């Protein structure tokens, strides 16, 4: 049996951030992942990180090692309707409203930091079963010739909420796919991000190096056709949806992700905690998923660090304290994301007009606009 105090399952961005945070806080952990060491480099996702996430990654000692493109302005609009809202970093006294980074470079930077802290990921080790007892959790895995693992606390960051788990809620299958790629603009983007609500779903253009990272949401049954288009036909489709405010001249190869909202009612169980996409898988609109995950990571680390180094990290009181502290932020992010999709997916004329009015109203009403901007930058800290 291989014993550790804390075992992290999953070395994606969430699990890696937790491993670094715990090591820095003097609570070392063991981290395992089912995939090979190079697999994360194939992650095509590009993430918009909030100002608050940048601060957390800075405290984890990785920010300076990540190539990030600042978002100076966010432009929100809807296709086929009036109204738009503009958010400027300068209005909030911050250098950027957020930053855009490749998930692959984020994981690589976290791996280098973990290495510097004297820890490594145990790759090609798929966890196949957990048996939680009174004092620890027995963890079975796929690695041949290696003994089972055992830990006082297991942190699950395995990237999905299992549909079979009766403690999970599939609140909504959006029947949408996100088609992602990068696209080159004809003129420099100037750090402006566009969030545009179209009749098919939201479209995001995020400044990423000299390009835009594109998240093009379409009905699930239309994504095959979109993926099958040649570059110029795809560009024409993209251009039609974004309108004339940006001219795009080339696009990279595309990848696709099915979208749904699924979350666990409680992010903790017996000697177990779920974080990131394993606790809640959200629609990528407004880029909340990993930002929320990082706040989970920070919250759990603070909770564990508040206990003595010899205290049991899997103690019920600690896990309940963590779950209580995270409740408002989780519910807020789940509700905010889902409400945006539902409000902006209704194509009846009255709704479209109301949305246009709403976007204009938001632009004219500073306190409400500041609330939305702070929600994007800091999550639950947007609340007074
Ligand atoms: C199109 C798209 C755009 C997005 N844009 C944004 C954005 O702009 N901003 C934002 O904040 N979020 C965004 N997100 C969400 C973000 O990508 C996720 O929240 C984040 O990547 C989740 O990371 P994770 O580490 O929790 O999961 P993952 O990245 O899925 O990692 C899970 C890891 O667990 C391992 N694993 C799985 N099962 C096992 C097992 N049994 N044993 C061992 N290892 C296992 C896997 O191999 C993997 O390495 C977006 C998502 C999508 C789909």
UniProtKB/TrEMBL annotation:
Keyword Ribosomal protein: no
Swiss-Prot/TrEMBL cofactor(s): FAD
Gene3D superfamilies on file: FAD/NAD(P)-binding domain (3.50.50.60)
Cited InterPro entries: FAD-bd, FAD/NAD-bd_sf, UbiH/COQ6, UbiH/COQ6_monooxygenase
A Pfam family annotated for this UniProt entry: FAD_binding_3
FAD-binding domain span: 5-327
GO molecular function: FAD binding; monooxygenase activity; oxidoreductase activity, acting on paired donors, with incorporation or reduction of molecular oxygen
Source domain of life: Bacteria
Keywords, comma-separated and alphabetical: FAD, Flavoprotein, Monooxygenase, Oxidoreductase
Pathway: Cofactor biosynthesis; ubiquinone biosynthesis
One annotated GO biological process: ubiquinone biosynthetic process
This protein's record includes keyword Cytoplasm: no
Similarity field: Belongs to the UbiH/COQ6 family.
Protein name (database record): FAD-dependent monooxygenase
Organism: Candidatus Methylophosphatis roskildensis
Taxonomic path: Bacteria, Pseudomonadati, Pseudomonadota, Betaproteobacteria, Nitrosomonadales
């Amino acid at each position: 049996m291989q014993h550790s105090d804390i075992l992290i399952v999953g070395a994606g961005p969430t699990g890696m951030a937790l491993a670094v945070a715990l090591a820095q806080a003097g609570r070392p952990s063991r981290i395992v992942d089912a995939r090979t060491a190079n697999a994360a480099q194939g992650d095509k996702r590009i993430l918009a990180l909030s100002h608050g996430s940048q601060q957390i990654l800075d405290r984890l000692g990785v920010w300076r090692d990540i190539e990030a493109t600042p978002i100076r302005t966010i432009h929100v609009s809807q296709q086929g309707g009036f109204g738009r809202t503009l958010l400027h970093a300068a209005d909030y006294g911050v250098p950027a409203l957020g930053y855009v980074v490749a998930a692959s470079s984020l994981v690589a930077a976290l791996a280098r930091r973990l290495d510097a802290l004297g820890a490594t990921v145990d790759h090609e080790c798929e966890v196949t079963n957990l048996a939680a007892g009174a004092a620890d959790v027995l963890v079975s895995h796929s690695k041949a010739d290696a003994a089972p693992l055992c830990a006082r606390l297991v942190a699950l960051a395995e990237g999905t909420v299992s549909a079979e788990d009766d403690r999970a809620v599939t609140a909504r299958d959006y029947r949408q796919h996100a088609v992602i790629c990068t696209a080159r603009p004809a003129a420099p983007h100037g750090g402006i991000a566009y969030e545009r609500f179209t009749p098919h779903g939201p479209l995001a253009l995020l400044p990423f190096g000299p390009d835009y990272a594109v998240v093009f949401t379409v009905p699930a049954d239309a994504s095959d056709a979109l993926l099958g288009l040649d570059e110029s036909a795809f560009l024409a489709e993209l251009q039609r949806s974004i309108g004339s405010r940006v001219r795009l001249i080339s696009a990279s190869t595309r990848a696709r992700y099915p979208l749904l909202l699924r979350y666990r009612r409680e992010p903790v169980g017996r000697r177990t905690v779920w974080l990131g996409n394993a606790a809640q898988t959200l629609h990528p609109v407004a880029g909340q998923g990993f930002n929320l995950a990082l706040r989970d990571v920070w919250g759990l680390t603070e909770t564990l660090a508040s206990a003595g180094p010899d205290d049991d990290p899997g103690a019920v009181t600690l896990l309940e304290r963590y779950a209580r502290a995270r409740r408002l932020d989780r519910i807020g992010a789940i509700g905010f994301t889902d409400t945006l999709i539902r409000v902006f997916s209704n194509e009846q004329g009255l709704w479209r007009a109301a949305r246009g009015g709403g976007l204009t109203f938001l632009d004219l009403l500073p306190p409400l606009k500041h609330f939305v901007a702070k929600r994007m930058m800091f999550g639950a800290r947007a609340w007074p």
